[in-house]
Amino acid sequence: MQSKPDITISYEDLREIEKQLEEVDLPEEMYDALEDELARANVVKTKDMPKDVISIGSQVTFKIFKSEKCFTKTLCLPFDMNKYPDGISVFAPIGSALLGLKRGQSIHWMTQNGKQKIDILEVKRKINYFFCT
Q: Could you tell me the fold of the domain covering 8-124?
């Protein structure tokens, strides 16, 4: 079994994700997968987040290895999906897989179509991301 790559998230992202987790009804396996990701994360102050790490509000370009397709998406909270035309929820399986990764990292994750691999090509941090409260 392959080990998962190291991930880093901010205390602010962690707080907002956990707050919204309390307010939504996710299937148990999705909830558990996201909680597992959060539990293994290195949590830092927002000011200490490296610029090349995917956080809430980051626009990330990634490649799905099996299809060789590249996508550019903005990682956001579920309640903020309508703010971004390219938004992907951190509660979606691919969204939770992206959270905390940095440029150059890869991750394997299980989907309905079997095991997939994502390569992180580029990360752009958004300057102004406002949490929905």
A: Chitinase A; domain 3 (3.10.50)
